[in-house]
């Protein structure tokens, strides 16, 4: 998958062939086909791999640690750090591939929708921990915040900020500031 992700990122999804992926991974093209079915199946597995570089167990451990943190501002800081680390660990590459893939290909469109659903559900789980009723502003719901977080925590946003010269540390600080807006005024630091 690392070979495929590297080639997809460098050359683009359309320009990359299974033969090139197999050569870079030092396996036969038939092995790639047997393992992933086709190029879309390979991209799907790359997306799953990149969406959660830490793995499902680590995500659950992160959510547990987040729930154990009593301080609302510290929880927000932990989430911003988690987001930055995800982008630094390769989530951006796959997100960019999916956002730039051919929307006319129904399998790629379905995969992009699945990735969006995964991100929204993960953000909903995070926001339920970050913003329980007693500390959340009354004019927003957890679903509102999760949708906002999913839009802000996306490849187009990260790419734009990087082009404007932002560092990932600036991005992390910005996420802390944005998420802090959803706390009740008496909870904001």
What does this structure look like?
This protein is mainly alpha-helical. The chain has a domain at 53-180. The chain is 74% helix and 0% strand. It is built from ten helices and no strands.
Throw out a few tags for this protein:
189 residues, mainly alpha, 10 helices, 0% strand
**Proportion of residues in extended strands:** under 5%
Which range best describes the helical content: under 10%, 10-25%, 25-40%, 40-55%, 55-70% or over 70%? over 70%
Separation of termini? Answer: 43 Å
Order of secondary-structure elements: HHHHHHHHHH
Which spans have pLDDT < 50 for at least 5 consecutive residues?
none
Q: How many DSSP E strands?
A: 0
The rounded Rg comes to 18 Å
In DSSP terms (H or I, runs of 4 or more residues), the helix count works out at: 10
The profile of the biggest β sheet is: none
Mean pLDDT: 85
- Shape, please? elongated
Give the helix/strand class: mainly alpha
């Amino acid at each position: 998958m690392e070979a495929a992700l590297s080639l997809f990122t460098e050359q683009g999804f359309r320009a990359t062939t299974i033969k090139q992926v197999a050569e870079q991974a030092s396996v036969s093209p038939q092995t790639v086909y047997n393992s992933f079915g086709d190029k879309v199946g390979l991209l799907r597995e790359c997306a799953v791999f990149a969406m959660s570089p830490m793995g499902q167990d680590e995500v659950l451990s992160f959510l547990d640690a987040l729930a154990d943190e009593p301080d609302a501002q510290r929880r927000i800081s932990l989430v911003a750090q988690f987001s930055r680390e995800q982008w630094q660990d390769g989530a951006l590459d796959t997100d960019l591939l999916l956002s730039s893939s051919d929307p006319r290909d129904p399998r790629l469109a379905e995969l992009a929708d699945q990735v969006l659903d995964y991100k929204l559900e993960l953000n909903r789980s995070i926001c339920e921990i970050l913003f329980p009723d007693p500390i959340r502003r009354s004019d927003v719901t957890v679903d509102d915040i999760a949708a906002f977080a999913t839009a802000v925590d996306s490849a187009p946003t990260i790419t734009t900020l990087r082009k404007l010269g932002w560092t990932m540390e600036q991005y992390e600080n910005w996420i802390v500031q944005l998420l802090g807006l959803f706390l009740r005024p008496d909870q904001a630091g």
